[in-house]
């Protein structure tokens, strides 16, 4: 604008100078006053510079110098200037248009930048989500692999269990087969026993069974079983007959009520004596222990060398069996009649394989009759062997062929001897006599007293004795 104004003023001044010169040339000598009035004190002679001051309406700063001699502008220059002015105006317009265009572009750029920024944040968000999903999928893959491994392990275990189950089934089948054959064997034995009883065919059947079971025992079978001391089975059918073959040489031939009676009669030697309990015609022989614990003891059971098989039937446990000077069982029926006479006490003496001797005493002992399965009635314990019989108090007697115990199976079958079983035993002095004490067996079938060395220790010497109080 300032340039345009300057150019305008210059043109105006140039035009003014031209006009005044033209006027001066027309007036000639008459125009001197006028020239002097216009130029003031300045003199136009000899090409001297004349000045004309024009005060524009706008405020001007600085002095304006007009060379009247150079103001020979022509129209072409004016036209050129005008053209230039127009061109500049056009350029100005163009610039303005460009400026406006640039302004709109700047707006667009700003909008684009804003959009770009929002897009960037959106991309960052999406990237974050994607990363999260990738990690999640990775975790899922790991979890899936873990579950697959667990499944694999479980399957392996299931297969193992299945295999074990099949093996157990096979074992069970084998055991069932063994049990079946054992039952058949037992039935055969019972039949043989019955045959033996009815035909009175002496001891052939018994000896067969003895030998057969003897194989379970560590001691070899002895010929003693076949000697004259064996208690014959005829007593079961003719109780009044004497079942005994030998008698000791005594001052008084007897019979006596019990061994205390023998002692009281002056017979102080420990030996076999003939007894006949009161209220019965039943005669029997028993070993009287007269030197131990003040004497007078009627021995009702003895183990010492494994020479006699104790895996016997009900009838045999009822009547008694074995060798009176060795291992034997006096008989439940005899015990019943003896203990009816008075109040008796029971003494159990035990000896282990190191020679240690202990005893257990019960201050009362008697049996119920056969129709109550010779139920055990026992008093208070004393002694140093430990009490392994009170648990059996008030229990019926059980044998291989007569199961009166409270166990689901037959305890006598597993423990290989008749006893007052509960379910099953804290003691079984009629079990298998194993040599050496500790034994290895499928069942707890040794001759043991749990409180003395436990159930898997077969004792060396055992005796059960009764004596009236
Ligand atoms: Ca039972």
From TrEMBL:
Record's compositionally biased regions (Basic and acidic residues): 25-35
Gene3D superfamilies on file: Gamma Fibrinogen, chain A, domain 1 (3.90.215.10)
Bias (Polar residues) ranges: 205-221
GO biological process, one term: blood coagulation
Domain of life: Eukaryota
Localization (cell): Secreted
Keywords: Coiled coil, Disulfide bond, Glycoprotein, Secreted, Signal
Region of interest: Disordered: 25-45, 205-226
PROSITE patterns, per the entry: FIBRINOGEN_C_1 (PS00514), FIBRINOGEN_C_2 (PS51406)
Stored SMART domains: FBG (SM00186)
Predominant subcellular localization, coarse grouping: secreted
Domain Fibrinogen C-terminal: 250-469
InterPro entries (alphabetical): FIB_ANG-like, Fibrinogen-like_C, Fibrinogen_a/b/g_C_1, Fibrinogen_a/b/g_C_dom, Fibrinogen_CS
Coiled coil: 78-105
Cellular component annotations (GO), alphabetically ordered: extracellular region
Matches recorded under SUPFAM superfamilies: Fibrinogen C-terminal domain-like
Signal sequence annotation: 1-22
Pfam families linked to this entry: Fibrinogen_C
Protein name as catalogued: Fibrinogen C-terminal domain-containing protein
Organism annotation: Mola mola
């Amino acid at each position: 604008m300032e340039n345009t104004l300057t150019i305008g003023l210059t043109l105006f001044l140039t035009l003014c100078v031209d006009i005044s010169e033209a006027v001066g040339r027309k007036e000639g000598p008459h125009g001197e006053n006028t020239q002097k009035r216009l130029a003031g004190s300045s003199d136009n002679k000899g090409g001297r510079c004349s000045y004309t001051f024009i005060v524009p309406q706008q405020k001007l700063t600085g002095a304006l110098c007009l060379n009247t001699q150079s103001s020979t502008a022509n129209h072409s220059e004016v036209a050129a200037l005008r053209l230039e002015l127009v061109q500049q105006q056009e350029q100005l317009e163009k610039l303005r248009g460009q400026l406006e265009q640039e302004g709109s572009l700047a707006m667009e750029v700003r909008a684009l930048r804003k959009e770009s920024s929002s897009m960037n944040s959106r991309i960052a968000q999406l990237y974050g989500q994607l990363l999260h999903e990738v990690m999640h999928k990775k975790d899922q893959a790991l979890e899936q692999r873990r579950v697959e491994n667990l499944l694999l392990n479980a399957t392996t275990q299931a297969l193992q269990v299945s295999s074990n189950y099949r093996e157990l089934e096979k074992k069970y089948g084998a055991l069932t087969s063994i049990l079946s054959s054992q039952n058949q064997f037992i039935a055969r034995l019972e039949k043989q026993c019955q045959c033996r009883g009815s035909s009175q065919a002496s001891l052939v059947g018994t000896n067969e069974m003895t030998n057969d079971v003897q194989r379970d025992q560590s001691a070899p079978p002895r010929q003693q079983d076949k000697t004259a001391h064996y208690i014959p089975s005829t007593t079961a059918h003719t109780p009044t007959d004497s079942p005994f073959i030998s008698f000791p040489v005594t001052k008084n031939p007897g019979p006596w009520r019990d061994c205390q009676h023998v002692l009281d009669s002056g017979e102080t030697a420990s030996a076999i004596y003939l007894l006949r309990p009161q209220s019965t015609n039943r005669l029997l022989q028993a070993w009287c222990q007269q030197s131990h614990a003040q004497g007078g003891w009627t021995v009702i059971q003895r183990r010492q060398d494994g020479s006699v098989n104790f895996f016997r039937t009900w009838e045999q446990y009822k009547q008694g069996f074995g060798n009176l000077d060795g291992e034997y069982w006096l008989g439940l029926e005899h015990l019943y009649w003896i203990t009816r006479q008075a109040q008796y006490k029971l003494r159990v003496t035990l000896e282990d394989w190191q020679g240690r001797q202990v005893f257990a005493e019960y201050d009362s002992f008697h049996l119920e009759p056969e129709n109550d399965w010779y139920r055990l009635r026992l008093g208070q314990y004393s002694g140093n062997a430990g009490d392994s019989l009170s648990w059996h108090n008030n229990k019926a007697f059980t044998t291989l062929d007569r199961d009166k115990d409270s166990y689901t199976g037959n305890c006598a079958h597993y423990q290989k001897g008749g006893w007052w079983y509960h379910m099953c035993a804290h003691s079984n002095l009629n079990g298998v006599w194993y040599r050496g004490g500790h034994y290895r067996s499928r069942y707890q079938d040794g001759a043991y007293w749990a409180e003395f060395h436990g159930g898997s220790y077969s004792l060396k010497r055992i005796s059960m004795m009764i004596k009236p109080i």
